[in-house]
Design a protein that fits this description.
The complex is a heterodimer of chains A (about 200) and B (about 110). Chain A is mainly alpha-helical and about 200 residues long. Chain A starts with 5 loop residues before the first helix and ends in an 11-residue tail after the last helix. About 10% of the residues of chain A have low confidence. Chain A contains seven helices and no strands. With about 110 residues, chain B is an all-alpha fold. Chain B has a single domain, classed as Helix Hairpins (Orthogonal Bundle), CATH 1.10.287. Chain B contains three helices and no strands. In chain B, helix 1 runs antiparallel to helix 2 and helix 2 packs antiparallel against helix 3. Chain B is elongated. The N and C termini of chain B lie far apart (about 60 Å). The model of chain B has no long low-confidence stretch (mean pLDDT about 80). Classes of the chains: A mainly alpha (about 200), B mainly alpha (about 110). Chains A and B meet through helix 1, helix 2, helix 3, helix 4 and helix 5 of A and helix 1, helix 2 and helix 3 of B.
Chain lengths: ~200, ~110
Amino acid sequence: MPPILWHSVFFFLLAALACAFAVAVVLAGNVVRMAFYLIMSLAAVAGLFFLAGAQFLGAMQLMVYVGGTLVLLAFGVMLTARGPLSSMRTGGGQWVLAALLGGALLAVLLQTVVQVGVRDGDSPAVAPPAEPQSPTSSTAQLGLGLLGVRSAPQVQVAAAPAPPPGYLLVFEIISVHLLVVLVGAAYLARAKRPRREEI
Amino acid sequence: MDLLTHPVGPAHYLVVGAVLFTCGVVTMTVKRNAIGVLMGIELVLNGANLNFVAFGSPGLAAGGPGSLGLDGQWIAMFVIVLAAAEAAVALAIALCFYRNFATVDVDRGEELHG
């Protein structure tokens, strides 16, 4: 019997956590509980990022998503939830319709996934997952690649003679976009006072 | 126990991403709370992120012809930042909605009916 791969064990553990809490988000009636289940699901997804070798991305997911966006969502819940309004029920017919729609969508997606796995020859072509990789190398490559320096030439792209450009412009656009959007959000959500009468 | 002795491939990650995506879509359609709809959007974005990371992961699809390399991680990073921006704006809109209608039930916002 081949030895148990702990990478696979942790993958299935985290995948089960992520999927179970995502289903719990769908089924929960209370918004506060939904927020908690969403936090757990996103944290499990961050663990999956760590397992896939994207350490920096997993840390960003934990800090930005779980630490920032979901705290924002929790504030939104607390600011807008008032007693009975925090749990708005959905009718039974809508649940049946949503279950049908969701099942059909999941079936289509899973069929596509199976086709992708068969075409790529999933098991034998996969590299051993526990490659010796220092934890900072991925982050350094990410930072250099933003400037257009590709230090990971193991991906052979035959059809592209020139290396693809960096992501510096996209990075700048996104940072300015985030700034503008946050200013706009603060403007939208400001407390409106009655305008003082001018004499 | 056959699953635990084989290495995981991109297809495993894609299955998890598909489940997250479907849960997000169903959450968006079922919930009547505007904040709940927002949470569905976050789930959908995370499912897409998981796919990007799986296709670009050095340990899963290394050197394959369909591997994204590090591009997958960049795209996932940009998606995370855009999701933060989207959540901020959507929460501001939800607060305005709450101020005008005294509820966040999306079925009550029917002023724009034709």
